[in-house]
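User: I'm new to structure prediction. If I give you an amino acid sequence, what do you actually give back? Let's try with this one:
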Amino acid sequence: MKFETKVIHAGIEPDPATGAIMTPIYQTSTYVQEAPGKHKGYEYARTQNPTRSVLEANLAALENGVKGICFASGLAAMDAVMKLLEPGDEVISTYELYGGSYRLMTQLFTRYGIKAHFIDLNDKTLLRNHINDKTKLIWIETPTNPMLSILDIKYICNLARKHKIITCVDNTFASPYLQNPIDLGADLVHHSATKYLAGHSDVILGAIVSNDKELAERLYFIQNASGAVPGPQDCFLTLRGIKTLHLRVQRACDNALEIAGFLKKQKRVDKVFYPGFKDAPNHQIAKRQMKHYGAMVSFNLKSDTKRAANRVLNKTKLFSLAESLGGVESLIGHPASMTHASIPKKERLSIGLTDSLIRLSVGVEHVDDLIADLKSALN
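Assistant: Good question. You get back a string of structure tokens that encode the predicted 3D arrangement of the chain. For your 379 residues, that looks like this:
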């Protein structure tokens, strides 16, 4: 089944009770049992919900995995993966990482004896030197947030497999339409489904897709035991959003390609971060492991101050100043004070995340209008 068909049909059947073509919202907390322990597959809505079950099956199909497990948010999903570890275990991750992921690892799980190393995962020697008998997880984010660096998923996963290390790829920026990490060797794929999967800025939801049944069962246990599950309304909205995933992401990618080219020519712009440029680091890897280069574009200004960034951020009309990404509407943000404020400034600057860096989530509006909006703000 082709991807464009999967988003509409995979894991989805007409409602057996009524024939409804859209999966119903099963807004219930519990289910009546015929006798103690004798039920129709559903006992309590924290443990199972039919709307959530359909979404989980759909996501597993989109990522070519065996099981999908949904959570109340992207960070709740990451929290569940971290709970696969034990005190004394170590994690290796990229030093270009979403601020919330960094905060979860450094401010929460370090308290439970789990150590995280943040390194350049493109440095193969550095990666090999950091692997030891305590390394149990490699957390990969590609394209990275907000620098849009590309990591070689296949190489990292092959190396991890030799050392029996679990790999999890945060695929939020790419979406399964552009990139399928399981096909490249990943054990787990992570999504903040809030973003491209749901796609309309009206849902908070996270997901993990597993290529391993045993890992999936452990994550299902954590999902039920910890209880950070999404409600059926959010599952329904995400299912609805997924049906147009390929259309939305393709249009947004096409827009981002033109906008990146436009920004590169602007005299007030210092550098544009976009993996679609032929001279971008790891462009060939992006070309190999992604269908397109994504709809995220970051750039910094020649006047490298927060004040200069604010002048642009406050002048756009169509690009709304807001956190998040992946919706149909275009967003503009300031990572240093928004999504990555939890990362110490010294560490931010070491990866090029300056005070003038601006991040764009390009939407599906007409590209001419978006370029005109940026041109006006820059001028």
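You can read the tokens as a compact description of the fold. Here is one thing that stands out. The CA atoms of residues 27 and 355 lie 45 Å apart.
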